[in-house]
Amino acid sequence: MVLVAVDTKDPTPIYAQLDRGLRAAIATGRLRVGDQLPTVRQMAVELKVNANTVARVYAELERSGILETRRGVGSFVAAATDRARPADDHARALTAFAIRVLADAAGAGFGAKELIDALKTRVSPP
């Protein structure tokens, strides 16, 4: 079973693609707490990437508490789905939403200041 995929044509660094892919596999339930991941070497061969890249991602995920490495046994999922989401996902989603709202407002002929004032009026008591 292929857990993650990397795209060498994608400008995103391989380690970031691998990190995002493993987090997504956990967040969506494809990987569950206690599941064992392939060894660094197995993952590197499967993805045709450098083993040091895989080791770096595993180490970062372990520092984040998402993976647990048991010496001589392997790496296992240690975190539930909610902890596997990247910390900046919320901020990134909010920024994308704000950009869409600003673009819609501009398309309707409203400026950013007008929009912000209207939002403040809606959320602040009169």
Question: Can you walk through the features of this model?
Answer:
This protein is mainly α and 126 residues long. The chain has 2 domains: 14-82, Arc Repressor Mutant, subunit A, CATH 1.10.10; 89-123, no CATH class. The protein contains 6 helices and 2 strands; from the N terminus they run H-H-H-E-E-H-H-H. It has helices spanning 14-27, 40-47, 51-63, 81-84, 89-107, 112-123, and strands at 67-70, 74-77. Strands 1-2 form a two-stranded antiparallel sheet. Helix 1 (14-27) crosses helix 3.
Radius of gyration: 20 Å
- Please give the share of residues in helix: 55-70%
Helix tally?
6
CATH topology label of the largest domain? Arc Repressor Mutant, subunit A
How many domain regions?
2
* Residue-averaged pLDDT: 86
Brief overview:
By secondary structure, the protein is mainly alpha-helical.
Topology:
Blueprint (H helix, E strand, L loop, with lengths): L13 H14 L12 H8 L3 H13 L3 E4 L3 E4 L3 H4 L4 H19 L4 H12 L3
Antiparallel strand pairs: 1-2
Task: Name the descriptors.
6 helices; Arc Repressor Mutant, subunit A; 126 residues; two-stranded antiparallel sheet; 2 domains; mainly alpha
